[in-house]
Design goal:
With 255 residues, the chain is α/β, with parallel strands linked by helices. Helix content is 43%, strand content 13%.
C-alpha cells in the first residue's frame, strides 16, 4: 500500500531485489504502470494495481477482489499517506473539526481496517504472516517546534493523533493475532531526505539544518534505510518480534 511513494518505492525495490513477487498498490496509475513496465523488463516480478485507500467505504470490496485474483499475501506493508487538500491547515490554531475527522477516517481508519482485513485473510489461509505499518517519531514523541523556526512549517495535530493510534493498533493486533503466527509491527521513521510530500518541492534547508543538529546522527534519514528495516521485520530474522515499534530515526527519540 502506497507502493510508489518515497518510502514505499524503496520497500518495493528492496523486496524485488530479493526475488519476491510484489503487488504494489497506489493511486498514481500512470506512475505505477511506468514502474511496472520498467521493473518487469529488468526481470523483476512486480504487479501494479491502482488502489485508493481513502475510499474507506469501498475497502472491503476492493480488498476482496485482490484476494480473489492474487491470493493471500505472506507480507503486507502499509506505506500509504492519504490526506485532504487542506492538510496544510492542521495546526492547533487553524484546524477545523471536519478536516480532522476526515483525515482520521482516511488515514488511521483505513490503516486499521485494511490491517484487519489482511490479518483475517491470513488466518483463513493458515500460513501465518507479517504485517508492517508505517508510524512516525511523532506517534511516539511530541513535535519539537524549534526545528520549524524561521520556516513556514508548523506542528500538526492530526498527524500526531493518527500515528499514535496506528502504533497502539499494532500492539493490539499483535496480542490477538499472535496465536495464528501472524506478526504485526510498526516502523517509525524520523525525518527523511526527499521531496516534500504531495509536492515537487525540496525540503527547506533551514529545517534540514535545524533538524539535523538535533538528531544524534546529525542528519536526516534516507528512504532506503527504512526499507532495510522493513526487510528485516518481514524476514525470519525477526521471527520472534511482534508488537514492536522499531524506530528508524537516527536516535531522535532516544534523547
Amino acid at each position: 500500500m502506497g507502493g510508489l511513494g518515497l518510502i514505499g518505492s524503496e520497500i518495493s525495490k528492496g523486496f524485488l531485489s530479493l526475488g519476491s513477487r510484489v503487488l504494489a498498490l497506489d493511486i498514481n496509475y500512470e506512475k505505477g504502470k511506468e514502474m511496472e513496465k520498467k521493473l518487469t523488463a529488468a526481470g523483476y516480478d512486480l504487479i501494479f494495481c491502482p488502489f485508493d485507500c481513502a475510499e474507506v467505504d469501498k475497502l472491503e470490496n476492493k480488498f476482496s477482489k485482490l484476494l480473489d485474483k492474487y491470493g493471500c499475501p505472506d507480507i503486507y506493508i502499509n506505506c500509504s499517506y492519504p490526506r485532504t487538500t487542506d492538510w496544510g491547515k492542521s495546526s492547533f490554531k487553524d484546524i477545523k473539526l471536519e478536516s480532522f475527522q476526515k483525515n482520521v477516517d482516511i488515514h488511521m481508519n483505513s490503516y486499521a481496517w485494511l490491517a484487519r482485513l489482511v490479518a483475517e485473510a491470513m488466518v483463513q489461509a493458515g500460513n501465518g504472516g507479517s504485517i508492517i505499518q508505517l508510524g512516525s517519531i511523532y506517534g511516539v514523541a511530541a513535535q519539537d517546534l524549534t526545528v520549524y523556526e524561521d520556516t513556514d512549517m508548523h506542528e500538526n495535530m492530526t498527524y500526531a493523533t493518527i500515528k499514535g493510534g496506528i502504533i497502539n493498533l499494532t500492539r493490539q493486533m499483535a496480542s490477538y493475532y499472535g496465536q495464528y503466527n501472524i506478526r504485526v509491527n510498526t516502523l517509525c521513521p524520523g525525518g527523511l531526505r526527499g521531496h516534500v510530500s504531495a509536492t515537487n518541492s525540496d525540503q527547506n534547508p533551514i529545517f534540514i539544518k535545524q533538524y539535523s543538529n538535533k538528531a544524534p546522527l546529525k542528519r536526516l534519514g534516507r528512504a532506503e534505510e527504512v526499507a532495510s528495516a522493513a526487510l528485516f521485520l518481514a524476514s525470519d530474522a525477526a521471527s520472534y518480534i511482534t508488537g514492536a515499534t522499531l524506530m528508524v530515526d537516527g536516535g531522535w527519540t532516544a534523547i
